[in-house]
Design brief:
This protein is an alpha+beta fold. It has six helices and five strands, in the order E-H-E-H-H-E-E-H-H-H-E. Strands 1, 2, 3, 4 and 5 form a five-stranded mixed β-sheet that branches. Strand 1, helix 1 and strand 2 form a beta-alpha-beta unit. The two termini are about 25 Å apart.
Length: about 160
């Protein structure tokens, strides 16, 4: 990408995997004067308090030793990462989807920590979570609204002098 040619750089659910010094140096290199940076990630899902409790036990309990250390940056909404921008306050936003119990279980199987645990124990750990959710998710083929609050940090790049 040509230096000074980009008006907007955005990173969605990935900043925690990038080396910050190299990333921000490249942002400064490619950013046009007055350019903006927007980063975002989504928080833990929410469905209903009783369902959320079961999922939270799995996420923060069972999976705790299997999350990469960088995952903490997502759980903090990227708030602890210093950004070279003059930040603006974004509106409150969420991703929303209607899911069946099987779709939710499929989503939980995509989590990196779930995959690590599954490889270690040689079976699907989400099956236990799904079983615990059956009495709370009636009918089990029905759809429930799932929300993921978004954490957005955005603003104009502050040029080094």
């Amino acid at each position: 990408i040509e230096a000074g040619s980009v008006d907007l750089v955005t990173v969605a659910q990935a900043l925690h995997w990038l080396p910050p010094d190299a990333f921000f140096a490249e942002v400064r290199r490619v950013m046009a004067p007055g350019g903006a940076l927007a980063i975002w990630c989504y928080a833990r899902l929410s469905i209903a308090p009783d369902i959320d409790q079961v999922i939270e036990r799995y996420y923060a309990g069972t999976l705790a030793p299997y999350w990469s250390p960088e995952r903490a940056l997502v759980d903090e909404g990227y708030r602890t990462i210093p950004l070279p921008i003059a930040e603006v306050e974004p509106p409150v936003m969420s991703m929303v989807s209607d899911m069946t119990l099987d779709e939710l279980a499929g989503y939980m199987r995509t989590w990196s920590a779930t995959r690590k645990l599954s490889a270690e124990i040689g079976r699907d750990p989400v099956a236990d979570v799904r079983e615990a959710l059956i009495p709370l998710w009636r009918p089990t083929t029905g759809r429930r609204t799932v929300r993921w609050p978004l954490h957005v940090r955005a603003g104009r790049l502050v040029l080094e002098r």
